[in-house]
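Running this now, will post back.
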Amino acid sequence: MRRLTIIFNNILDLVFPRQCLGCGTPRTLFCAKCLAGAPSAPPAEHSFIRAAFDYRHPSIKRAIWRFKYENVRGFAETFAERLYEEILGDLGDNLHLSPGETFLLVPIPLHKKRLRERGYNQSALLARKIIALDHSNTFEYAPNLLIRAHATAPQARNEKRAARLTNLRGAFTCTDPTRARGRTIILIDDVTTTGATLLEAKRALASSKPRNVLAFAVAH
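Update: finished.
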């Protein structure tokens, strides 16, 4: 059924050319004016998590839904530009950088079963677009540093926090502790609500003794 939905949406894109979700401007998924006018995310509960946009904004919510579930991968480039600016700004403000220092960019992984069903990992698409923007080689792409050790139930928005944490416990495994040791790691995700997924990813990296772990999401 999901494959049929993707095919149908691709046909719709051909018959009805893409237009901005905010204002309807043709030939763009999200025009620069509407993107600039979208509200910034409120502070996340966990200080290591940052997000660019407020998920409650209708256009942002619809864009992420289309990106995540309807195979509209073009949103990766749109959102990556904003995330890249957010990450660079935060690193410059909060870290003392060493000459030539690079940061590991790690997308939150999907379990292989869900990856087969969806056909792509939206967080990995975002991370790759960020790398493409990184002409100064500030980031080092590490897509396999974390793996999803077991499948987890979808994180319902109204699910209690304790249940979310239990659901995610042990979900991630660090595959290369030596590579992570002493490094600053940047986790990339599309959306965060309670922060449970990013918190568990950070916990999985802790035994590798990274210098720091930060997380950036498109929306919160």
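Strands lie at 49-53, 103-107, 139-141, 146-148, 172-174, 184-191, 212-219. More later if anyone needs it.
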